[in-house]
Amino acid sequence: MKWPQELDRLLPLVRKYILKYCLLSLIKAITILAMVNIPLQILGGVMQDNPSYGFIFITLNLLTLLVTLIYFYLHRPRVEEIALVLDKQLETKERIITFLEYEKESESKRGVTAMRGEVKSFISKVNLSFDWDKKKFKSNILTATIMILILIASILVAPQISQSIERESGLKEKQQEVVAEIDEVLEGLLEIDQEKYDQLIEELEALKDIAQNAKESEELEIILKELEELLLKELEDQQEMLKDISELRDLLGTSTDLENELKDNPLLKEELLERIENLQDHNLSTNQRERLQELSDAINTNPTTENLAQLGELLEELQESNGTAPLEEMLGEGANGPGSEVEPGPGESPGEGSDGPSGEGEGSQGGEGGASEGEGGEGEGQGSGSSPTGGDTSTPEDYVYIPSDKELVLDGDEGEYTLRDIMRMNPNIINSPYKDIYKGYHKEAITSVTGLDIPKPLEDYVRKYFQSIAP
To answer: Where does the record place a coiled coil (predicted)?
Structure first.
């Protein structure tokens, strides 16, 4: 229905009403789009790496906008609706709507003409004032503002949700990797010797439980370091045990008549029994430890060719069954990996020192026990004591470097003396093997790295340093 000419004076009010409807529709459209985008933003945080998210985002926004425009267009104000509103606003007692309906339906031209004149005359006298219904505007604006604020909040929160999900996903993935690595080590230990590694297996099982309940990736890093530390500790014990076995076998092979020498030389017998006892301190199976103890008791009571031969066979068996290859493989070592044995080059081998009674013998008196050509020694010592050759040698600090493949021999008034002889006669001498000193410092370093006392950028430097000075 067209707006009658007689009501032209009301057109500004009609346009205001239509403008009001358009503004309210725009505010509502913004509110609807904001409401749609709030879950879309949160979904974006969840589907950040999903390529289909962009398509979903654009499609839903365009679809929402299209549906909203169609809805507001279909529900746009009609002429009759505007007439009713104007009648109410202008208090015309429904003259406007009545005139429009009468003009549309009446067949009497005379009656319509008379009414047109009356309505035109009446409208010309009406005070044209239009109430915008500010309360309705304010409520819609408030709703739109709230939705926009929520949308902004969702935009700000979405990256955090994404990071949280990514962190949770990364934590779970890393958790699975750590547990799988521990399971792999456990499986390897069970295949080698469950009884022998019983204590280590128990510690790893506890470590696995902690990993399964870890809440932060830092905890998993610490667990991995703890796993490496446990394996390194076991590897060091294996290497030390193999060294003790090798030295004990060398001692057994020093003489073709060792049986009589042990009977005639209590010191040699004492050294042999002491080496057997030291070997028992390592990680051996119950059966191996019992056999060693039986042979030790037998040799202590009466050393015979038979029990010495049995000891040699047992040592060979221990050497074959206690290789370091499985542990090195578990640690994933290369040629210079963690825990691998790297022989120090010239000038890098820390030697074994003791308080030398004189400047004679091998090595350099007054040296630092650290710089030398060769394979490296056993450590460093200092102290004072009485010389077996007579005289007082309580000099402040004298060091003698002893390569690991050589024996210290000093000439005295009553013959030659080895380092072991000097140590027995001078109990005050401090003789600390380098490997013991290294082990203490290495343990402290690992503890500091594990406890996050050392900054992350320096952790690799600490590890490489201790690998480079490993005995």
So the answer is: 190-245
